[in-house]
Design goal:
mainly alpha; 15 helices
Length: 346
């Protein structure tokens, strides 16, 4: 894995917040300009949300981040302090918010853990395991949501969304299956396969990278094996809590604009949000800006009606912009802490 400090610090740059913010605002401006039904009055309806559900949405955000902090500390067998765990999660979320979802933040996450004094092999193992746990939540819950709720999960005019979902889900499922087999069953076979595939003439230029990645997976596998059952219970439970809290944010938000939602409505909203997040993983824009707002309005207009665009804005304010803001504030302090303060103490 190439951990070029300059490139990673270029990603972890407070100035990166302006591009996703501009795309998000630009999308709203475009929607207002292109749709005569969207007026200033409808935008102002954002302030008509009921206070208690909005507060609960922020509580869910806090629960989600707390679960992630607990998970990363548990993953490292408490090698990370609580303070270091908080820094890791905030900066990891910031990196995800300023880079396209399709790019991923594996190298950045490994770099952050390295700077928090977790060695390379363990850092790589913990990041890979985190990604697998998150992906497994998608792979397991998406079919369950479709089985229980049916195609009501998709918007009435969401044929495009179905296609994107099927593509995204298939890629996630294949990747997760391969990585599970590689990490937990046959890492050496995985390395052999990569080398054989890149022996083909038109893939030969990637052979060294494949060899390197095969070694990394074998290294990570050796560090993950042999963990006790309590270890797995803690990190799996934290993963489930984190993702349920993430989706519950939107349930509370829609409840802030509507009356009379029953348990079936909440199940459908939860399922729609699950589908939405899987679709967002293929977005080419930083933090899925534009893509997220567009598919949000397609998915939840039946519940929100005239409040849709205002609710979309509030949803991003709660679930996305805090990472840009807090990350930009925390990042300089973290850089000073790991690059300068530690050198003075050495």
């Amino acid at each position: 894995m190439n951990l070029d400090t300059k490139k990673i610090l270029k990603t972890l740059n407070p100035n990166k917040v302006w591009l996703p913010a501009a795309i998000s605002v630009g999308f709203v401006v475009f929607m207002i300009w292109s749709d005569d039904n969207i007026t200033t009055e409808k935008l102002n309806l954002i302030w008509q949300a009921k206070a208690f559900p909005v507060v609960m949405a922020f509580v869910m955000l806090l629960i989600k981040e707390t679960a992630y902090v607990y998970r990363i500390r548990s993953l490292t067998n408490k090698q990370l302090t609580w303070t270091s765990s908080i820094y890791v999660i905030i900066l990891w979320e910031f990196a995800s918010a300023v880079t396209p979802s399709v790019v991923g933040g594996t190298a950045v996450a490994v770099f952050i853990l390295l700077k928090e004094k977790i060695n390379f092999g363990k850092s790589l193992a913990f990041v890979m395991l985190s990604a697998i746990l998150d992906n497994l939540f998608f792979v397991v819950t998406a079919p369950l949501a479709l089985l229980i709720i049916g195609y009501d999960i998709f918007p009435d005019f969401g044929q495009t969304m179905r296609g994107v979902f099927i593509t995204s889900y298939s890629l996630i499922a294949i990747y997760t299956l391969v990585m599970c087999l590689a990490l937990f069953y046959r890492p050496r076979l995985f390395k052999w396969f990569l080398i054989k595939v890149t022996s083909l003439k038109f893939l030969r230029k990637w052979r060294y990278a494949a060899y390197q990645h095969g070694n990394e997976v074998m290294w990570a596998s050796s560090l993950i094996k042999g963990k006790k059952i309590g270890y797995w219970i803690r990190i799996i439970t934290a993963t489930i809590v984190a993702w349920i809290a993430r989706y519950a944010i939107l349930n509370f938000l829609i409840a802030a604009y509507t009356d009379g939602l029953d348990i079936i409505d909440h199940a459908v909203i939860f399922g729609k949000h699950l589908i939405l997040w899987i679709v967002m993983l293929l977005s080419p824009t930083p933090g899925s800006t534009g893509t997220a707002e567009h598919f949000f309005m397609q998915s939840f207009v039946s519940y929100l009606d005239q409040y849709t665009i205002g609710a979309a804005m509030l949803w991003r304010i709660i679930s996305y912009y805090p990472y840009l803001l807090v990350g930009a504030i925390i990042l300089p302090k973290w850089v000073k802490r790991v690059f300068f303060n530690r050198r003075k103490n050495q």
